[in-house]
């Protein structure tokens, strides 16, 4: 169920199916709550096994932070770890979810304290982090990468060898935002759609009225959403760009990649981006869409 990202409520139906197949499924642990508890226990044990392997073999780690808001409107911090789990260093590193922290506030000092407490809880001691904590990746918020009192600055004071990396996806979003601010026509277009978004997203009654109008006109109703934001960046040409960068990143992370090979890969990727930018205005993507349809 967990591997297939299915809901826990599937368990009772799966058990009923196995009973029809003639299997003796017992009488306990058949509910969706039991399924959630079992999955949580397995996740905790697997995570402990991986972290113990990392600490025992003194593997270097990178921490990925993502600040988000929970359903209850509370600020949370998603903590992920990227590290190698192969003693012979023959396989590529893995990235896995470590913990979800509910932040008391968004001050950088609070984030650092709760982050270090989380790492210590998972057996990453202060002595271990001094030697093997090599990278921190996060978004570009001032409380994260601020030069004077950001999370990155406070952590580099404790761990001088730490490299702080600004998320490339967030950089791309900021670049798009800068372009929008520089081009007046696009800016007015964005303001127009943001106004529509604020109007229709704030009232279910207005949304229902819009659906009724679309139904009467026999038109397909499309949800009005924000444009030029993170979701918008993840479409069309920006999506293709991120895909190209992802492929390049995976190639550069391979242990068998040498410096000359990496240099050639980067040069080739630059040529691809130049070609994409030139063909973008020549109807390249329009032709691609027509060919797919």
From TrEMBL:
Name of the protein described by the UniProt record: E3 SUMO-protein ligase KIAA1586-like
Species annotation: Acyrthosiphon pisum (Pea aphid)
């Amino acid at each position: 169920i967990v591997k297939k990202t299915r809901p826990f409520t599937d368990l009772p139906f799966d058990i009923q199916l196995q009973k029809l197949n003639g299997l003796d499924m017992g009488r306990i642990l058949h509910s969706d709550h039991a399924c959630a508890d079992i999955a949580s226990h397995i996740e905790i044990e697997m995570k402990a096994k991986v972290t113990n392997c990392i600490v025992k073999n003194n593997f270097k780690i990178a921490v990925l932070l993502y600040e988000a808001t929970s359903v209850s409107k509370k600020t949370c911090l998603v903590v992920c770890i990227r590290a190698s789990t192969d003693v012979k260093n023959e396989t590529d590193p893995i990235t896995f979810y470590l913990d979800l922290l509910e932040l008391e506030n968004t001050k950088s000092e609070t984030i650092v304290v709760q982050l270090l407490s989380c790492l210590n809880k998972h057996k990453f001691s202060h002595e271990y982090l001094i030697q093997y904590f090599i990278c921190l990746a996060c978004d570009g918020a001032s409380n994260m990468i601020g030069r004077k009192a950001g999370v990155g600055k406070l952590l580099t004071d404790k761990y001088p060898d730490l490299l702080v990396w600004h998320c490339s996806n967030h950089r791309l979003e900021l670049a798009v935002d800068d372009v929008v601010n520089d081009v007046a026509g696009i800016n007015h277009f964005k303001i127009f759609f943001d106004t529509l978004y604020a109007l229709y997203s704030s009232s279910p009654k207005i949304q229902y009225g819009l659906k009724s109008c679309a139904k009467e006109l026999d038109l397909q109703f499309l949800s009005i959403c924000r444009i030029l934001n993170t979701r918008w960046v993840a479409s069309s040409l920006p999506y293709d760009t991120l895909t190209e960068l992802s492929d390049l990143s995976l190639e550069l992370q391979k242990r068998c990649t040498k410096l000359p090979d990496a240099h050639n890969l980067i040069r080739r990727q630059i040529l691809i981006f130049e070609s994409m930018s030139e063909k973008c205005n020549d109807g390249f993507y329009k032709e691609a869409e027509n060919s797919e349809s």
